[in-house]
Amino acid sequence: MRIAYLDCFAGVSGDMLLGALVDAGYPLPALRKALRAVDLPPFRLRAERVSRNGIAATFLHVVPAGKPPARGWRDLDRLLERSRLASSVKNRSRDVLRRLGEAEAKVHGIPIEKVHFHEVGAVDTLVDIVGTAAALESLGIRKILASAVNVGSGAMEGSHGLHPVPAPATMELLKGAPVCGSSPSVETATPTGAALLAALAEGFGPMPPMSVESIGYGAGSRDVRERPNVLRVLIGETIRTEDSETVVKIETNIDDMDPRLYENAMSACFAAGALDVWLAPIQMKKGRPGILLSALAGESNARPVAEAILRETTSLGVRTARMERRTLARETRTVRTANGTVRVKIGADGGRIVTMQPEYEDVKRLASRSGFP
Fold first, then answer.
1. Where is 270: in which H helix or E strand?
2. Domain's final residue, options 238, 256, 280
3. CA distance 109 to 103
4. Could you tell me which of 65, 70, 63, 21 has the C-alpha nearest to residue 42?
5. Checking DSSP bridges between strand 149-150 and strand 179-180, what pairing results, if any?
6. Considering all CA atoms of the chain, what is the largest pairwise distance in Å, rounded to the nearest integer?
7. How far apart are CA 144 and CA 137, in angstroms?
8. Confidence of residue 244 (pLDDT cuts 50, 70, 90)
9. Do both 320 and 333 map to the same domain?
10. What is the pLDDT of residues 103-154, one digit of tens each?
11. E strand or H helix at 50, and its extent?
12. SS3 250
């Protein structure tokens, strides 16, 4: 499985995460194209190579053209809802924004509909959220894990006066995640960065066994003396250390849904952490043709996947069953050919190679470029 591991030793913010993904290989033209799918106020986007304590990183400048209008949470959610983004990117973006709005609402004791973005800024927020969701989709990342989060310390001046660091909304979003403080007294984790972690990260802890393919560094705006102010992202394939695991199958029978909606439902399942999703034709009561929608997920993701099915289909309920899944140890190697490089997936059992398969998208790209079938 293709994963991204976020090393938050210096904290996390929206621009640091997006900058790291650009640094790891997400093309800036693709980012601009994704952002054009949202009706944002005019702005300029520029990537700059900077050094933070000797580490080269990408720093993204988002400069609004003039003073953007004040917008509330509902305004931003409507922009996403009406956007031309791919359904999976749209769903992920709205989930992140919803979590951010809920945290701000709880901290200020107001309904989410009355939340306005002062410290975070509407344009910056949507650029960071939409850009990150689009980058993860483009890079084929199926799972995100993160380290403990450095949240900083001290106090900061906001629109409501002096606030503790980390900001109250940041801590609300990071409840349940491992965090640590640091000196000097600066904010190292922002609400937008925390919302991205809360919505996207499936777990926190040490780096898992993985074959690293690309590394990116996203720079924060400050250049502090104590540590490089960067977020590091490592992208690659997981390496299984055991040959079996417990998984959950979630399924439901459907006979009353527009077939055009299944693609969106499957995308929502994958966005919720499903390992695999499939459809099968079935014969239901009264002779009705129907569809069996099935999804496979790890135990920690079974509930979000079930919620995605209930949210995105006409189903009134799902069935779940736990089962053991035996898998080969997996590794990805890069092979050079006369027409370019191809990633090859290798399955091994006890150190013995059992199967090898070239990555389809790599073969498709080289075939198109070389003219071969």
1. helix 262-271
2. 238
3. 10
4. 65
5. parallel
6. 72
7. 12
8. low
9. no
10. 999 998 999 988 887 544 678 899 999 999 999 999 999 899 999 999 988 7
11. strand 43-52
12. strand
